[in-house]
Amino acid sequence: MKNDSKKKILEMLSDSKISVEEATALLSKLQNPDTVDEEVINTESGEVKRKTPKYLRVVVDSANGDKVNVRVPLSLIKTGIKLSALVPGNAAEQMSTHGFDLSQLSELNGDELIEALSDLQVDVDSADGDKVRVFTE
């Protein structure tokens, strides 16, 4: 698989579909799989773009040994936005008295939100050894 990818990158370079810098970056990412972003290469145009993320991940490793690993499908966010429009007015009012304001959710564009989340990355390393990571994949 790796050799096929290298060959495809070199072919695109020789066909002037990508620049030397782009080819170098792609080859470097193949050699260092830990740093590879989820990317797609369009072999027709040579365009490199990110895949749309499918999950929101929250990973916590505490210094005292507690671990949390949550993987939330981003499709749930889109579904939640749509469902918020179905909440009856009186229920929405009751929820707002408890701090839950759903009125703005129905105005959100789910695809735009998912696109914005694709660049999300939060890394927290506390002084006492706790680590928190929030990212999309």
Query: Radius of gyration from the CA trace?
Result: 21 Å
- End-to-end Cα distance: 21 Å
Structural class: alpha+beta
Largest sheet: 4 strands, antiparallel
The 3D shape can be described as: flat
Provide the residue-averaged pLDDT.
77
β-strand amount: 15-25%
Specify the helix fraction band. Answer: 25-40%
Uncertain residue ranges: none
How many helices in DSSP terms?
5
The total count of strands amounts to 6
Task: Give the topology.
Layout: H1 2-14, H2 20-31, E1 39-41, E2 48-50, E3 55-61, E4 67-73, H3 75-84, H4 89-97, H5 110-117, E5 121-125, E6 131-136
Helix pairs in contact: 1-2
Tell me what the structure shows.
- The chain has 137 residues and is of the alpha+beta class.
- Strand 3 (55-61) and strand 4 form a beta hairpin.
- The protein has a four-stranded antiparallel sheet with strand order 4-3-6-5.
- It contains five helices and six strands.
- It folds into two domains: 2-50, no CATH class; 55-136, no CATH class.
- Helix 1 packs antiparallel against helix 2 (20-31).
- The longest helix has 13 residues, at 2-14.
- It has helices spanning 2-14, 20-31, 75-84, 89-97, 110-117, and strands at residues 39-41, 48-50, 55-61, 67-73, 121-125, 131-136.
- The mean pLDDT is 77.
Please sum up the structure shown.
This protein is of the alpha+beta class. It has helices at 2-14, 20-31, 75-84, 89-97, 110-117; strands spanning 39-41, 48-50, 55-61, 67-73, 121-125, 131-136.
